[in-house]
Structures are given as C-alpha cells and as structure tokens.
Specification:
Layout: E1 5-12, E2 15-26, E3 31-32, H1 45-54, E4 61-63, E5 66-68, E6 73-78, E7 82-84, E8 87-89, E9 93-97, E10 101-103, E11 106-108, E12 111-116, E13 119-121, E14 130-131, E15 134-139, E16 149-152, E17 155-160, E18 166-170, E19 176-182, E20 187-191
Parallel strand pairs: 4-7, 5-8, 6-9, 7-10, 8-11, 9-12, 10-13, 11-14, 12-15, 14-16, 15-17, 16-18, 17-19, 18-20
Antiparallel strand pairs: 1-2, 2-3
Length: 196
C-alpha cells in the first residue's frame, strides 16, 4: 500500500507522553491518518524481534502466534527459558538463548537455527515441533532430553556440546542428517515412516 502519511508516538518510562499523525491513510477518500491507523510492517519485524528479545533479562519468554510472512525472525542473546508456542516465518528463524528452548510449533520456509541450554518439545503431541528445510539445533545439555523432539526438514545438524543426548523423530520422509554430535549421551534419530 502506498500511504503518504505516518503516525508517531513517544513513550517515556513506559508511559505514552505524546502522539500524533500526519498525512493521508486513504488518498482516494482524503481520509487522514490517525493514531489508530494501521501500516504494513514489511521487513521491520527482524529488528523489532531482536530489540525486544535483547531487552528481556532473565525472564521466561512465551511466544504465541508470531508470524512473519516476508523476511526472517532473528533474535540473538535472549536470556532465560523461551516457550515457542507458535512461531512461523516466510523465510528463516534464528534464535539464540541463554536458557532452555521449548518448541511447540516453530516453522520457517528455509532455515531454523535454535541455540540454547537444551531444546525440548513444548507439550506432548506427535506433530512436528520444528519445521524448515535446514534445521540447525545446538545445545550444551541435549536435544529432546525431556521427550522426543519431532522435526520436519530436509537437512539436520544437531549438536550437544557438553552433556545430554539427542532424541529426534523425523515426521516426514527424506531427512538428511548432516551432523549429529554429543559429547556425553546417546543419539536417537528416528523416522515416522522409516525413511531417513
């Protein structure tokens, strides 16, 4: 949409102190932009996600129904445990956390890269918890250690660098395991239809 206008706001110490609007929201009908006008976010989701996650200190984060249709979701250095209830991206998802990552539905059109203390399933369903073409899962204390992590991808790199095993199940056919490394634990990679 071509919107020759903008809405702005200033927040100080968590309080809205000023707001305003300039221009038109609808040129044909000469409708002015207001503080409640909606604008397309485009690829700004990456910066907003990274800034928001970086501002959180030692909290459990629960992400529910976050969708990005263009561009990827990138967050570096999020602290505490993260519950990814439903996170989808039209491109990639790259997340690094200092705590545990619990995946309910994490789905990207290309790469999903998750790095944390451990990566586990959120809930107990049999649907894919992590989906993308290239899956890179890196932990210090294991992948699927609380129960099998269901995945759907074409390529998997799974690494547990200190302790803990790797327990994943490919829910679709055709997964290529590029790397599966653990320094102290077992590796279990299964396929729902028996084809890896």
């Amino acid at each position: 949409r071509k919107v020759p206008g903008l809405a702005w706001a200033v927040v100080e110490n968590g309080e809205l102190t000023r707001q305003g609007a300039l221009g038109l929201a609808d040129v044909e009908n000469s409708a002015a932009v207001t503080a409640r006008s909606l604008f397309a976010i485009a690829s700004l989701d990456k910066q907003l996600t990274a800034t928001g996650a970086g501002a959180i200190v030692d909290l459990e984060i629960q992400v529910t129904n976050l969708t990005a249709t263009a561009g990827g979701l990138i967050s570096a250095g999020a602290t505490g445990d993260i519950n990814l209830v439903s996170v989808t991206s039209g491109a990639s998802i790259l997340l690094s956390a200092t705590g545990n990552i619990f995946a309910g539905l994490v789905s990207a059109a290309t790469t999903v890269g998750l790095t944390g203390v451990s990566i586990n399933e959120l809930g107990g369903d049999t649907n894919a918890d992590v989906s993308g073409t290239v899956l890179t899962l890196t932990t210090t204390n294991g992948i699927g250690v609380l129960g099998t992590l269901e995945i759907n991808g074409t390529s998997l790199v799974a690494t547990s660098t200190v302790v803990g095993g790797i327990d994943v199940l490919d829910t679709a056919a055709g997964l290529t395991v590029t790397t599966a490394i653990t320094l102290d634990g077992s590796i279990s990679i299964g396929a729902a239809d028996g084809i890896l």
